[in-house]
Amino acid sequence: MSPRIVLVHGLGRDLHDWDAVVPGLADLAECIAVDLAGFGTEPPPPDRVARPREVGPERMAALRAAVEARDLVPHADDAFSVTVRAIALQLLRPGPVRRAVASLRMPVTALYGRHDRLVPVRHAVRFKRLLPAADVRVLQHAGHLIQLEDPGDVVAAVRRQVTACSGEVLSTPGEGA
User: Fold this and answer.
1) Cβ atoms of 157 and 149 closer than 8 Å
2) DSSP character for 45?
3) Do the Cβ atoms of 76 and 70 come closer than 8 Å?
4) SS3 67
5) Which of the listed residues 80, 87, 152, 173 has the most CB atoms within 10 Å of its CB?
6) What does DSSP assign to residue 14?
7) Which domains does the chain have, with CATH numbers?
8) 109-113 and 135-139 strand pairing
C-alpha cells in the first residue's frame, strides 16, 4: 500500500494552493488536497506575503477567481470568524496546543518561509525544541505561502520525509532506477 499524503491549506486559502506540489509527489504517494469547511473560497488577507512574480500569472488569476467566488459561499464568514476566535483563544492559552504538538508520535515535517511576515522564522526554532524528532526546515526563498512560492523545495522536503519513513531510496530525475 502506498503512503497517503494529506495536504491542508492555511486559513483563508483553498485546496488549489497545492496544485504545483501534487505532481511532484504523485509517483511517491496518493496525494489528497482538501478544502477546510467554509474556506475553499475565502480570500487571503490583503497584506499576505504572496509574491506575484513567483506565483505566476495563471495561479494569480485562479486566486483572484477564488476571491470573487467567496461571496457565493454563505457560511464562509461564520466559519472564518469562529476559526479566528479559536486561534485567538489558543494564543492566549497556548499550553494545550504545545502539549498536543509535543505528544505527536508520527513523522512531522514543519516548513517555514525565511521571508514570512505572518509566522516569524524564529518559530522554527521553538517548534524544533517542542518536537525534537521533527524535520524542521526554513525555505530560504519563500514567504508565508511556501507551497505557492517555493513548490520545488516543498516537494523535496515531503519526499525526504516519506522516503525516510518508508525506508526506500528513490531516484531523482536523471538518475537510474
Assistant:
1) no
2) P
3) yes
4) helix
5) 80
6) -
7) 4-166 (3.40.50.1820)
8) parallel
